[in-house]
Design a protein that fits this description.
This protein is an alpha+beta fold. Among the domains are: 106 residues, Roll (Chitinase A, domain 3); 102 residues, Chitinase A, domain 3, CATH 3.10.50.40. The chain is built from 14 helices and 13 strands. Strands 6-5-8-7 form a four-stranded antiparallel beta sheet, with helices on both faces. Helix 2 packs across helix 3 and helix 3 packs across helix 6. The longest helix has 27 residues. The protein is elongated and about 100 Å long. GO terms for molecular function: peptidyl-prolyl cis-trans isomerase activity.
Length: 428
């Protein structure tokens, strides 16, 4: 059975002075302290320098107060994260999973885009923040390795059937008209029941810091143990009844921008934030965009009813022959239509009422019945039609959501098994 020693964190582990973290008063003592072992993970070590650098990165990127109290409070969770990363990288190495430089470049580009940077500014940006680029690179590589490993390890177990997708979409369609909320989460799991109080204390501190202005997304990336941590804890758009009952009850009370107190579930402690709300709705037909072509034949106010019937039949004859908008334009000209055939592109809702009712259900290539106007008779053909957007997810989006949920559960179990099988010894 692997031996696991409970971590004892020295009060003097980290202090902050003049914006830089130090642990000793002299250069020699400082160097010696940095070489100390913070933890042993199987046959590899995590140094005090590794721990110090990661604490500083977490404080800066999460916009937490830069002081010794913050550093000391964060140290247990940060060390745990480093230990988990070490286990993940060891497992990736055992199974010959690696990350190419091109994959790292894409990850750097994603970080640049997320922070509004131009391509190639990654290292300069990190350095200007006062963070060691090597520390960020290590975390980035570990996240990529773990994601790739989980995908490869469990791909055959994560197969979403068409029936599951259809059932999920049907449930969403049945919920049309209900309020959805955009929810993000931070999950702190409890592996050792004797350490639950430490987890609760950390959760409360994180809530306090986020409410004080720290970035929820940045804190989630550094502390959350959910699979969505790398996207700032974003769960996406959800209805309350899609969440665990304990979470649903809280989400219903949160307004946009609110952050919950820590919520205890069987998984651990959750911190939730609502960033937006909307009503789940079907597409509005009036928001469809259509391009129309017309045939118009005039009728003078002095013309009798017979003349109007004649023009109506002439319009009907044109639309009966036309199979495309180009052909409609040619036939309209031959019939003596005095106006340009192209009516341009409009939203259905923006059209005059008498025209809107005629074209609302027409598809591309279909023509309306003749429409009486005060000065003539017209008919239109739909040349192009763009469907209105819906906030109901499409089947591909639903499939990805279901896959991500399943991968998250498997990843949590995988990491738990790695922890239980490992030799982990903490020395600070």
């Amino acid at each position: 059975m692997p031996r696991r020693l409970a971590p004892l964190f020295l009060a003097a582990l980290v202090s902050v002075s003049a914006g830089a973290m130090t642990v000793a008063s002299s250069p020699v003592a400082h160097a010696q302290q940095m070489q100390r072992i913070a933890a042993v993970v199987n046959d590899e070590i995590i140094s005090v320098r590794d721990l110090r650098d990661r604490i500083e990165m977490v404080i800066i990127t999460s916009q937490l107060p830069r002081n010794s109290e913050t550093a000391q409070r964060l140290a247990p969770q940060v060390l745990r994260n480093l230990i988990d990363e070490q286990l993940q990288m060891q497992e990736a190495d055992r199974l010959s999973v690696s990350i190419s430089e091109s994959e790292m470049d894409r990850a750097r580009s994603d970080l640049e885009a997320r922070n509004g940077l131009r391509p190639g500014q990654f290292n300069d940006f990190i350095t200007q923040l006062g963070v060691d680029p090597g520390t960020v690179e290590r975390q980035l590589r570990a996240n990529l390795l773990w994601s790739k490993l989980v995908q490869r390890r469990f791909a055959s177990q994560v197969e979403i059937s068409a029936e599951e997708v259809d059932e999920t979409r049907a449930r969403l369609a049945a919920d049309v008209g209900k309020e959805q909320k955009r929810v993000s989460e931070i999950l702190l799991t409890i592996e050792d029941p004797t350490k639950e109080n430490e987890v609760v204390q950390l959760a409360n501190r994180l809530v306090e810091q986020i409410r004080g202005g720290a970035s929820f997304g940045s804190v989630a990336r550094q502390f959350s143990q959910a699979a969505n941590a790398n996207v700032g804890g974003d769960i996406g758009w959800v209805l309350s009844d899609q969440l665990a009952p304990e979470l649903a009850e809280v989400v219903e009370t949160l307004s946009v921008g609110d952050v919950s107190d820590p919520i205890s579930t069987i998984v651990g402690y959750h911190i939730l934030q609502v960033s937006d709300t909307r009503v789940l709705a079907k597409p509005d037909p009036g928001q469809a965009e259509i391009r129309l072509s017309q045939v118009f034949l005039p009728v003078r106010p002095s013309d009798d009813a017979e003349q109007r019937r004649t023009q109506t039949e002439a319009v009907r004859a044109v639309t009966a022959q036309a199979t495309s908008c180009d052909q409609l334009a040619t036939l309209a000209k031959e019939a003596g239509s005095p106006v340009a055939p192209d009516l341009g592109t409009s939203r259905v809702a923006e059209l005059p009422a008498n025209l809107r009712t005629q074209v609302a259900d027409l598809q591309v290539g279909e023509t309306s019945a003749p429409i009486d106007l005060p000065n003539g008779v017209m008919a239109v053909m739909v040349c192009e039609r763009t469907a209105p957007e819906s906030n109901l997810p499409d089947p591909a989006q639903i499939r990805r959501q279901l896959e991500n949920q399943r991968f998250e559960v498997l990843a949590q179990r995988y990491l738990r098994d790695l922890r239980q099988a490992a030799f982990i010894e903490t020395r600070v």
